[in-house]
Amino acid sequence: MDSLPAPLRKAPLIHSSLIPIPPRQVTIGDAASFVGTTPRAIRLYQEIGLLPEPERGSDDRRYGYGEIIRLLWIRKMADAGIAVDAIRDAFADPAPTGADSDYDVAGARELGLLPDFVTSRLTSLPEGSLRQADLDILLVTERIFGPLGAAVQAGRFIALATHRGLREESDRVDTAEEALDDMIAVDDPRVAQVAAEQHAFELALHAVIEDSGLAQEDDALFDSWDALHPVTDEDGAHESMSANEAIGMMPYDWSPARLRCMELAEEIAANESSAS
Description:
This protein has 276 residues and is mainly alpha-helical.
């Protein structure tokens, strides 16, 4: 998908027209449902200092993107048997899952913080080539789309990590998109300009993915996943949360101008596709 940032960009499994507009903040109930825990557990994390107290809305605590990311890592670390003090120390580090800590790709794989199906695709990258934000996004994608979705999306980060100019352009466009804050009107010319730049970047990224063989690796991932997980009549019977439901619980602090920018980039991609 050409214009959606974070884990929704380049998502392989659904079309953007099916994606609901995500909330900017969510209640403790939706935060717990997305993470796969309980409101009581979240309150406990706050009491013992693993999670800062969130903002309060008119009727409840409100949780944003950063808090959900932290909750996901907390749950993963707790499930891996990491002690509370060690989890607290990890978050005292400015990059608790970054390249200079125990929670880089190798650490995430060893501790089970991300599935082997995801991390095995990343272990050949040079040390430090992935960013904290990259691992955060893979974690969210794995929660929404499962290990296959995260493994396919990992190809995006491989391309960015191995093509310096591409990563620099990604940073530039992301910065321009983030600057479309609540002070920018939806019809401001900058919105359309950034949409065009975002679309152009996605075309360049797609070309690198195709030319480098990463797209073929994606196809092999689907085949491998199908072999490991044959479809049965009971598949989906116990699924507790659909992708769309999960997306509706994952907050992103996107302004109306930024959302309009995404829509315009999608329109550009759709128009080019229909014209070709």
